[in-house]
Amino acid sequence: MLILVANLGSTSFKYKLLDMSGDFESANASPDSRVLARGAVDRIGEPISQCEVIVTQSHQGETFREETQMPVPDHGVAVQACLDQLTHPENGCLTEANEVAAIGFKAVHGGRKSGTFVVDDEVLEAMDEMSAAAPAHNPPYIAAMKLLRQRFPELPLVAAFETEFHDTISPERRTYAIPAEWTREMQIQKWGFHGSSHRFIAERAAEVLGRDDAKIISCHLGGSSSLTAIDSGKSIMTTMGMTPQTGVPQNNRVGDFDAFAIPLIMERTSQSLEEVLKTLASQGGLKGLSGGMADLRDIESAASEGNADAKLALGVYTEEIRRHLGGMMVALGRLDAIVFTGGIGENSDVVRAAVCAGLEGFGIELDASKNDGMRGEGSLHTESSKTQILVLPTNEEWIVAKRSLRALAAQ
Ligand SMILES: Nc1ncnc2c1ncn2[C@@H]1O[C@H](COP(=O)(O)OP(=O)(O)O)[C@@H](O)[C@H]1O
Ligand SMILES: CC(=O)OP(=O)(O)O
Ligand SMILES: [Mg+2]
């Protein structure tokens, strides 16, 4: 049974076509060997996007790999290019898109619909209600789902919402200090996001550490970044709140911010509430701090050349990560591992070193020689470190595929 998983990130589009036949629930289900094709478009919306496609077995029976650079203005163009690639007469691996049993989406905010659901009008409506709360994420997902529903009306679409993994967080850690009826009646609360990634890290870290009762902090750092404290496989605390604009600074979204600064900004800039919110959700975060650079690769290179704004952006970003790390260590009471994942966590030794700096007194010791240039799965701690420091590449698509199949079976 083939499942196509669509992952529309804030800066990227990634997809995997997975063969989910046989037992995919067991520990040796081997996610990598099930990938028939995968592709990624990086730097969506920038003048030049990087596109990579790998088809493990094409119609010609051979592996096909292509890397191109071209403008990909939005996620709609990326989804269309993915379907064209998969059904390409020579280099694709599907004769028709209908050979796929379902398309699973790493959907972001369903508000009242937190879980994994076959997409119907009610799911789309719930996502639409949350579009103002997740402006960078929900509109492209809704557009992609509507496009695919129109093109392939027989093909089930499944939405695995990012909030689901955080359903285990206690009321004390998910409730804002606001009038109680706002929480009860409107569910204004800390939902948390990146659930597929943090769940994958919980599963993989348990395998790597060889224990099911591990206490870990999963640092998913990418276009969007969030940390989650995980105890025995369950989320107990996370950094994003009601919306994916909160927590640590995001690529171009503000992160934690004092709501009472907003009326002052409106007064002094003569901007409407909508204009100020749009700025906070598209010109804030790393982009706002650095004077226009939303991608950490650009910020790192500008900072190394002495650019003061870029240095400050890096400093604010890593200090915010450390602030949350400290709170999570207290919530967990013991820390077996810090895990770095996501585009930044998996690739940036600069960020990993800054996050772990000076934590030796807590038993967290980074080995600089292991960290420098480290990519792929591996460990970065010294022999005497009490806490392990790991890099585990995330696999959100694997979690979405598994959850999508369960939702289809439960229908
Ligand atoms: N080699 C690298 N060094 C530093 N940062 C990187 C590197 N490669 C990717 N990144 C960062 O990772 C981000 C993408 O992360 P990812 O988790 O894939 O994105 P998304 O949030 O779109 O799902 C990029 O915006 C970039 O900031
Ligand atoms: C919140 C979320 O899913 O973020 P992103 O897709 O940008 O990583
Ligand atoms: Mg992502």
UniProtKB/TrEMBL annotation:
Its cofactor is Mg(2+); Mn(2+). One of its GO terms (cellular component) is cytoplasm. Keywords: ATP-binding, Cytoplasm, Kinase, Magnesium, Metal-binding, Nucleotide-binding, Transferase. It holds the Pfam family Acetate_kinase. Its main location: cytoplasm. It comes from the Bacteria. InterPro entries: Ac/propionate_kinase (IPR004372), Aliphatic_acid_kin_short-chain (IPR000890), Aliphatic_acid_kinase_CS (IPR023865), ATPase_NBD (IPR043129). Belongs to the acetokinase family. Mg(2+). Can also accept Mn(2+). This is Acetate kinase. Catalyzes the formation of acetyl phosphate from acetate and ATP. Can also catalyze the reverse reaction. It is an enzyme of class 2 (transferase).
